[in-house]
Write a structure and sequence with these properties.
With 222 residues, the protein is mainly alpha-helical. The chain is built from 9 helices and no strands.
């Protein structure tokens, strides 16, 4: 299963490296959203600093949605998804490979956004261990849930609008927990933030387990 996951992740990352959709479209979109949030709240710097964790993770969710849509748009074109079904690869491996590819793209994007809030908002970044662990665990949850719902929508004509309607409510716990953890890290009280990281870890593990065992059936139905 893990060998198949490496193959699928390498395929998706090679496609992104050649097309540069994430670099040329998703990253600029994320930075523009971050700047627009700053323009909206800039007259009151105090509110902007307080809202930085929430603005950061709302931007991550929006751009993460684009990354998930991109990952399955590649499979939907020319019915490549049929090739995946007939490839003989372990469905759990396909799922983990796509989660890994989406997650790696999101981690790079989140690192750029973290630099963005420091530059555009003037937010001093502290509590690095908590920030880094929150990003990694939350990204695993976003990628795990996004991949599971992405394959649900891949065979539907209105998948561009259906996927956000299905996925964003599910990711509400990730938004709440990661925002609280970031607030604790930036306020210099990391002890409170680790409890939210625990909630993120449970969310991620539940969706990873559901994906490993249920992705094959969903892929057959797509």
């Amino acid at each position: 299963m893990f060998r198949d996951a490496v193959l699928v992740a390498a395929k998706d990352l090679r496609i992104e490296a050649r097309s540069r959709v994430a670099l040329n479209q998703i990253v600029p979109f994320a930075l523009v959203v971050l700047v627009l949030f700053g323009f909206a709240l800039d007259p009151d710097r105090g509110i902007l600093h307080q809202a930085t964790p929430g603005l950061y993770w709302v931007t991550v969710l929006f751009t993460g949605l684009l990354a998930v849509q991109r990952a399955f748009a590649v499979e939907a074109s020319d019915r490549v998804v049929d090739g995946l079904r007939l490839s003989g690869l372990d469905p759990g491996g396909i799922y983990l490979g796509k989660v890994a590819a989406v997650g790696l793209e999101l981690v790079v994007l989140e690192a750029l956004l973290l630099a963005g809030v420091a530059v555009f908002y003037g937010t001093p970044l502290g509590g690095w261990p908590l920030l880094v662990v929150t990003i990694l665990v939350a990204t695993a949850g976003i990628a795990a849930a996004g991949t599971l719902y992405g394959v649900l929508a891949v065979g539907v004509r209105v998948r561009e609008t259906l996927l956000p309607l299905l996925l964003l409510p599910v990711l509400a716990p990730v938004l709440i927990a990661s925002t609280r953890a970031f607030e604790a890290a930036l306020d210099g009280t990391p002890g409170e933030g680790w409890r939210w990281v625990g909630l993120l870890a449970v969310f991620s593990l539940v969706y990873l387990a559901a994906g490993i065992f249920g992705f094959g059936s969903l892929l057959e139905e797509s």
